[in-house]
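lol forgot to send this yesterday, sorry. C-alpha cells for the thing we talked abt
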C-alpha cells in the first residue's frame, strides 16, 4: 500500500467523523456580515488538511492566512495547550509571568531586538509600533508633528491608526476622519522616499519613522527590493528616522528565514509579529532595539497580551521551528511550489504574468486584462479540494503550513491545474 493510499484512507475516516448539521442561515442571522465567506464550513483539521461539515477533505494552502505555522492538530501544540490550560491560563500583567519572559528571551536571542511588548494581534502590534515611534519622535527627536511614511498597497491592520497606515483607499472608505500623521509613497521606489522626506521637512512635518512590509502580502505578494531597503536603512541612520518593519505575515519562518528582514541584509529599529507566532493561537508582539524603547509604565498595555496560555503555545511553536529544522523545509518546498506555479503560468501564458515570493509565501498574478479574477480561481480550486487565498483581484496567494510535504505541493499543483482547466475549457 502506497503512502498516498494510506493518507487517503485516513482522510476518509476523519471526514466521516466530522459530518454534522450546519446552517448558514442560522449563522448569518447571528453573526455580523463583515466577511465575504466562501460556501464551505470547516470544523476539523490534521496537518495540512481540513474537513468541512459534509466530511469533504481540502488541502489547506491558506493556513488561516499564513497563521497555522505547524498545521492543524499539531501534537506539540496539543500537548502544550492541554498542559498549560490545566496549570494557569490568565492572570494579567499586574504580575510577572515566567513563560512570557521565556518567550521574550527566545525572540530577542533569535532576532536583532532587545525588548518585546506582547499583545493579541498584528494590528495591535503595529498600533504599538506607531505609538512607540510617536513617543520617540517627541522625546528624542523633538518633533512636534511627527510623520510616518508607509507604502501604497500596504496592509497594516484594521484599527483606526493601522488602516490609516494602510496605503489602500478601499480600507479607508467610510471611516473618516482618519488618523493624522501618515503619508504614502510607492513601494520599492527610493526616489519617492527621498522626495517625501524633503517635502514634509519643508512643511515642518518631519518624518519620524518609515513603516514597511518586507514583502507586501495583501498588496499582491510583492517582495521588497534589497537595494531599496538597504538605502532606506542608510537614510534612516543618517537622519535619525526609525525603521519599522511589519513582519506580521512574513515573520516566523514563512520566507525561509526566521524574519523577512534577513532576506534584505538589514536590521529594523522596530518590527512586529503575530499570525504565525502562535501557530493559530492569538498573540502579537512588538519588538524593538534598546535605543528606541521609550515606553514607561502606563504608556502601553494589553489585558490579554502575553498571558501564560498564549505565551506557552508561542514558545512551543518557536522551539519546534528550530528543533524540526522547518526553515529548510520552507526553502525546499517553496522552490518546488514556484516551479509548479511557473509551469502553470507557462501553460496558461494568456492568463498569467508572473510568479513571485519567498519561501512559502508566493503569488501567481493574472494578466490585468484577463476575464478571470483571483476569486474565480479560488472558487474553482475549492471544488478540486484545494484552499488558496486571493491577494487582490488579480493575484492568487499560496501560504501553506510550514510543515507541508513535497507530495502535498505536487497535489496542490495538480488540483490548481484541474481548477484552471475547468475554467478555460
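and heres what i got for the seq, position by position
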Amino acid at each position: 500500500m502506497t503512502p498516498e493510499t494510506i493518507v487517503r484512507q485516513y482522510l476518509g475516516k476523519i471526514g466521516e467523523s466530522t459530518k454534522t448539521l450546519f446552517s448558514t442561515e442560522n449563522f448569518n442571522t447571528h453573526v455580523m456580515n463583515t466577511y465575504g465567506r466562501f460556501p464551505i464550513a470547516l470544523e476539523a483539521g490534521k496537518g495540512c488538511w481540513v474537513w468541512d461539515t459534509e466530511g469533504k477533505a481540502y488541502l489547506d494552502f491558506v493556513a488561516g492566512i499564513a497563521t497555522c505555522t505547524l498545521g492543524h492538530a499539531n501534537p506539540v501544540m496539543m500537548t502544550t495547550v492541554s498542559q498549560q490550560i490545566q496549570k494557569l491560563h490568565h492572570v494579567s500583567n499586574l504580575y510577572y509571568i515566567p513563560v512570557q519572559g521565556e518567550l521574550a528571551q527566545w525572540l530577542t536571542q533569535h532576532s536583532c531586538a532587545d525588548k518585546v511588548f506582547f499583545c493579541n494581534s498584528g494590528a495591535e502590534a503595529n498600533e504599538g509600533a506607531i505609538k512607540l515611534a510617536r513617543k520617540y519622535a517627541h522625546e528624542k527627536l523633538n518633533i512636534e508633528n511627527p510623520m510616518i511614511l508607509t507604502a501604497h498597497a500596504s496592509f497594516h491592520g484594521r484599527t483606526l491608526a493601522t488602516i490609516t497606515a494602510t496605503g489602500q483607499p478601499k480600507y479607508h472608505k467610510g471611516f473618516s476622519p482618519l488618523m493624522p500623521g501618515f503619508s504614502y509613497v510607492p513601494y520599492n521606489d527610493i526616489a519617492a522616499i527621498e522626495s517625501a522626506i524633503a517635502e514634509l521637512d519643508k512643511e515642518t512635518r518631519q518624518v519620524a519613522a518609515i513603516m514597511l512590509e518586507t514583502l507586501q502580502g495583501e498588496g499582491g505578494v510583492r517582495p521588497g527590493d534589497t537595494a531599496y531597503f538597504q538605502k532606506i536603512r542608510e537614510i534612516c541612520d543618517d537622519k535619525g528616522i526609525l525603521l519599522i518593519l511589519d513582519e506580521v505575515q512574513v515573520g516566523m519562518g514563512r520566507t525561509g528565514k526566521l524574519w523577512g528582514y534577513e532576506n534584505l541584509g538589514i536590521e529594523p529599529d522596530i518590527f512586529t509579529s503575530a499570525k504565525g507566532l502562535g501557530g493559530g493561537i492569538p498573540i502579537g508582539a512588538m519588538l524593538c532595539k534598546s535605543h528606541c524603547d521609550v515606553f514607561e509604565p502606563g504608556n502601553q498595555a494589553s489585558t490579554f497580551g502575553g498571558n501564560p496560555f498564549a505565551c506557552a503555545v508561542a514558545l512551543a511553536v518557536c522551539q519546534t521551528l528550530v528543533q524540526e529544522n522547518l526553515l529548510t523545509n520552507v526553502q525546499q518546498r517553496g522552490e518546488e511550489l514556484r516551479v509548479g506555479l511557473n509551469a502553470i503560468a507557462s501553460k496558461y501564458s494568456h492568463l498569467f504574468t508572473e510568479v513571485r515570493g519567498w519561501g512559502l509565501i508566493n503569488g501567481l498574478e493574472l494578466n490585468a486584462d484577463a476575464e478571470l479574477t483571483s476569486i474565480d480561481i479560488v472558487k474553482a480550486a475549492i471544488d478540486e479540494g484545494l484552499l488558496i487565498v486571493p491577494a487582490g483581484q488579480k493575484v492568487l496567494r499560496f501560504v501553506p503550513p510550514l510543515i507541508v510535504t513535497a507530495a502535498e505541493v505536487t497535489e496542490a499543483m495538480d488540483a490548481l491545474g484541474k481548477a484552471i482547466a475547468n475554467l478555460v475549457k
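The radius of gyration is 22 Å. anyway ping me if u want another try
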